[in-house]
Amino acid sequence: MLSRLTRLQAVAVCALPVVALIATAALAPLPFSVAQPGMTANVLGDNKGTPVITISGAPTRQTRGELRMTTIEATSPDTDVSLGDVIDGWFATDQAIMPRDSVYPSGESVKEIERHNTEQMRQSQDAATAAALDYLDLSERDVKVTLTLADVGGPSAGLLFTLGIIDKLDGDGSGGDLTGGRTIAGTGTIDADGRVGPVGGVALKTQAARRDGATVFLVPRAECADARSELPKGLRLVPVTTLESAVDALTALEKGKGSVPSC
User: According to the model, what pLDDT value does residue 13 have?
Assistant: First the structure.
């Protein structure tokens, strides 16, 4: 003969599967990456003892100020991210929880992802060189540009590479620096025609930029809302859509004339 369970016993029995499910979810790896502000590098200077931009075949100029490309650091694609990590990241202002597929190509090994990111960086450098020389009406047959940035992959430094090449070759076009002596940071892809594209992780990149002394941040216009979400005090956002709009905005800042767009 079966005995009747008390209400407390019944609740306890029913709760067991729920507790087990929660415990499993808390320990199970989830398809996310935890990202945080990464390193920045001045493309007008050296990185790990090597000039980021080397130009031959045309005279270059001494530059003042800095143009800092920005990065994020994310947990590696083979790192297990738990529910606890996700919850911690949601409440941290210097972290972001991102779908792993938005950070790394899905279905690829770590080595394949490294090769993919290296190839994206190479393509970005080629596009930056083409866009900069086209903007200055210079030929790639005559001017050779070498871009070197250790331990960084992906396409998001394209805009800053392009601006760095232009600053070294021509500055603002009338003897001044594109930076106006400031520390300018930013992010954005670029194609050979000078179109600037979004990259992701902008809110974290603004934090990296301000940490390393930037007062102005160039952001793809499509990512203004993300950039404003955790904007550090003292950092001015300047949205851009093309290389020409970026140069125009920097020149207006430098000379204190003309309209500087804002998010």
Answer: 47
Q: What are phi and psi of 180, to 5 degrees?
A: 65, 25
Buried b (16+ CB within 10 A) or exposed e, 85-117: beeebeeeeebbbbebeebbeeeeeeeebeeeb
Q: Which amino acid is at 90?
A: W
Token pair belonging to 157 = 């430094």
State yes or no: pLDDT of 25 exceeds 70: no
C-alpha to C-alpha distance for 86 and 137, rounded to whole angstroms? 49
Which DSSP helix (H) or strand (E) runs through 118? helix 110-135
- Tell me if 147 is assigned to some domain: yes
- 3-state SS track over 132-196: HHHHCCCCCCCCEEEECCCCCCCCCCHHHHHHHHHHHHCCCCCCCCCCCCCEEEECCEECCCCEE
What's the mean pLDDT in 59-84? 86
User: How many residues belong to the chain?
Assistant: 263
pLDDT at residue 35 in the model = 86
Q: What is the pLDDT of residues 89-148, one digit of tens each?
A: 666 777 777 776 766 766 577 788 788 889 999 999 999 999 999 999 999 999 999 999
Q: If DSSP codes are grouped into helix, strand and coil, which group holds residue 199?
A: coil
Report the pLDDT averaged over residues 200-229. Answer: 96
> Does residue 43 contact residue 150 with C-beta atoms inside 8 Å?
no
- Evaluate if residue 219 carries a pLDDT over 60: yes
Question: What are the percentages of helix, strand and coil residues in the chain, rounded to 5?
Answer: 40, 20, 40
Q: How far is CA 86 from CA 25, 98, 140, 200, in A?
A: 11, 9, 47, 18
Which residues constitute the domain of residue 116?
37-73+106-255
Residue 53 lies in a domain: yes
Domain count, the chain: 1
